[in-house]
């Protein structure tokens, strides 16, 4: 998992995914399938990506009562992805249930997928969190609090912004994954993301993996853009 650049395949259907991946040839990538794509294509998109040898983060952000999450995770485990996630706001019992489900659904002899929890979405600002969620603390404190809860539930790490990763490591220790979306080059549009950081910043903050969507998928030459991102992320141009 460490030092991965995960490409968010936020596309409407399988055809768009194939068009995007075609110029990458046989190159094996770490890709993320989120709700936009999974709700349209279902398990078949996972089978297709696995056949091509890609590693997969299945990002469905489960958040429901523990029993429902447990049974849903049991089914998702059978897809044999590398990484899945839940919302930490669902609580410790729900997160423990997610793990139980994953373990129950993982075939004998296989390793269960890593399971991480979303703390505060990278599209959330401190002001929004205070006013809309009525959480009366600083955003960093909320993210660290959810990270501690996630660790106590036995999960493998969190989704957070690069700004919180160092503090989480100090508080929670290792091993604990910090997977960070909201990554942008200086010249990129932030769009709906509020807590953004550059790949250089993320690397210096010691995050485990970055998630990059539109900066690569919507670029004029995705293969070249991906290559540029990889070089910066891996520190070739640092
Ligand atoms: O769980 C996620 O992957 C996720 C959590 C979060 O807090 N913020 C976030 O942006 N994401 C996902 O990461 C991707 C970011 O995409 P871009 O903003 O296009 O780079 C999207 O697929 C989001 O669904």
Automatic annotation (TrEMBL):
Q: Where is the Orotidine 5'-phosphate decarboxylase domain?
A: 4-229
Known CDD domains for this protein?
OMP_decarboxylase_like (cd04725)
Q: In which pathway does it act?
A: Pyrimidine metabolism; UMP biosynthesis via de novo pathway; UMP from orotate: step 2/2
Q: Which reaction does it catalyse?
A: orotidine 5'-phosphate + H(+) = UMP + CO2
Keyword hit for Lyase? yes
Q: Which GO terms describe its biological process?
A: 'de novo' pyrimidine nucleobase biosynthetic process; 'de novo' UMP biosynthetic process
Its Gene Ontology cellular component terms are: cytosol
For this UniProt record, the keywords arranged alphabetically read as follows:
Decarboxylase, Lyase, Pyrimidine biosynthesis
Q: What is its EC number?
A: 4.1.1.23
Which superkingdom heads the taxonomic lineage of this protein's source?
Bacteria
Residue numbers binding substrate: 10, 32, 59-68, 122, 184, 193, 213-214
- Catalytic center residues: 59 (for ompdecase activity), 61 (proton donor), 61 (for ompdecase activity), 64 (for ompdecase activity)
Q: In the record, which residues are listed under signal peptide?
A: none
- Family per UniProt? Belongs to the OMP decarboxylase family. Type 1 subfamily.
On assembly, the entry states: Homodimer.
**Job description of the protein:** Catalyzes the decarboxylation of orotidine 5'-monophosphate (OMP) to uridine 5'-monophosphate (UMP).
Q: Which PANTHER family match?
A: OROTIDINE 5'-PHOSPHATE DECARBOXYLASE (PTHR32119)
Tell me what this protein is called: Orotidine 5'-phosphate decarboxylase
Q: Which organism is it from?
A: Neobacillus thermocopriae
